[in-house]
Amino acid sequence: MKRADWHLHGALIVLLCVASATSFLLAGGLLLLWRLPQISADTRAALIADAHEVAMRAEEQLRAQNIQLELLARMLIESPAGLPDAVLSQAVTRGGFSAVYLVSADGRVGQAAVSSTLGVARARELVGNDLSASPLFLRLRREARLSWSDKYVSPVSNRVAVGIGVPAGDAVLIGEVALAGIARWAEVSGSGKQLWIADSRGELLADSEDAERVGVFSLANQPLFVRVLQQGGPQVGHMSLEKQDFDAAVVRSSLLNWYFVARSAGGWRNPRARTAFEYAFLGLGFSLGLALLLAPWWATQMARPICQISARAGAVARGDKVQPWPRSGIAEIDELSNRLAAMDEAIRAREHELRELNAGLELRVQQRTEELAGANAELSGSLLRLHQAQDELVRAEKLAALGAMVAGLAHELNTPVGNSLMATSTLRDALLAFRECVTRGVRRSELNEFLAAADTGTDIALRNLQRAAELVSSFKQVAADQASSQHRAFMLDEMVAEVALTVRPLLRKHGVVLEIDVPAQIRMESYPGPLGQVLTNLLVNTTMHAFAGREGGLVVVSALPAEAGRVCIEVRDDGVGIAAELLPRIFDPFVTTRLGSGGTGLGLHIVHNIVVQVLGGSVGVQSTPGEGTVFVLELPTTVQASPQADMP
């Protein structure tokens, strides 16, 4: 995919905006990295102070209830007859208790007062109840001092509450405080802060943010609360609630044995941290806005001279007339403009030189073109004469092969024709003698002698004439096939026999024995004339070259069916062989060992062309000097007729 190119003006705007934003981000990031730890430290210090303040205010609020309950206990000790119910009721009404009751030494409620919301009947029902198993009662009996309880289920309201108890002689005076009242204290004491109040076990007594967490949420598993239990003293750190992190401070009230937790949103949710980030993003936005306002103007000022230089360079590339090169007041751009101006002058000087050189070159090219045209015409004529000479040599080679066959045939015909002439001459002499006998009278013995002589002469003449007719017919068929190159069906063994009949006289003249080993069942649809010419050329070539300097030899023509639809023909001799340096180019034109002795070197080249181009096969040669040569023809048994090959 091709990458999109930037325009200089746009690239400079983006560069300036990115540089401005990057600078502000780096500065703002460093400022935040420096400021956020301070905010965290300040927040934690403020949380510890808030927790201390809440604990002190809660102690002040609850200390009044402690004093009121201690006064009631002192009155009980001084009045053996007990306190009037009105006094207990007043303590409930004005002291902030939800219930106040007196428990005897055996754990039974002897006297009780409850808030108006629970009703007077509930106070009467409470009298006589056994609270000997109450944890607060047992602690007061054990420690005999004022104590605040942890969260428990009130026996009065059956709701979660906390209690305060003081010894009153053998009895115990207990006052209950509803958790709703403690939550109100937390709201008032915390002045809107997020506060928790937990008992000694970490059970939540009040939550300034969500009252529904009371009785459900516990701080016992919070690492910060565990650290306070283990190490004591105020502790500050992190707490997690409902998948949110808080910065928190925990302070223990020794008076109440409760824990006061002040918390604030941690990390990015911290209001002061969020404010710092808001200021940072506002600064970033202002910086980007200012950059977007100034960047186009600055980019235009920077890009204008470069664009002008680019336009001048384009004019130079097109060959137009160039106006003065621009200046910008920036050293690098002015340097570029100066160098381009120098390059423009150098280009124009070089163009002038090239025009002069080009004019001279055109004149020289014209002269050389005329010389080459003359040389080309001369070469064309020479090539035409070469092709004509090559065609003449090929024709001469064919005629030489045909002449060799004619010479051999003439030599072979001499015997049967001579025998026939002798037989007819003898028959004519016998006829003349028989005529003389007829004039003087023929005897039976003379007649029989004449008939025997006539029968013998005619038989000799007939057999020799038939032999001559066979030679002429074979030569006629071979000559007709080679002359016409017609496509027809033929039996390979018959065609080879006809060729052998025509060339055997030539071979016999040189003392060469020809053997044929071709099966009778090989039928071909091809060109018998070109195939016969190939075999004739190979046999004549063998006679001329294979047995040079030797008396006779053996040539074997054999054929075997090859793979489907093909036949392999071999022409093997036991002659002198072919030299190793000639073997790779034996089928090239004008390659011969008898150059200057009548050999043209085209015989095997013609064989190769006919086999490949007409017969559609291949020809190869294997030879070992001193042991003989084998020419191997691989031909298809069926060749499609070619109009060019069928032309007579």
**Gross morphology:** elongated
CATH names the topology of the largest domain as Beta-Lactamase
Give the CATH class of the largest domain.
Answer: Alpha Beta
**Mean of the pLDDT scores?**
76
Please give the radius of gyration in angstroms.
68 Å
CATH level-two architecture of the largest domain: 2-Layer Sandwich
The description of the largest β-sheet is: 6 strands, antiparallel
* Proportion of residues in helical segments: 55-70%
User: Structural class of the helices, strands and pairings?
Assistant: alpha+beta
What's the total number of strands? 18
The CATH superfamily title of the largest domain: PAS domain
Number of helices: 13
What is the domain total for the residues?
3
Q: State the end-to-end distance.
A: 64 Å
Flag low-confidence runs: 188-192
How much of the sequence lies in strands comes to 15-25%
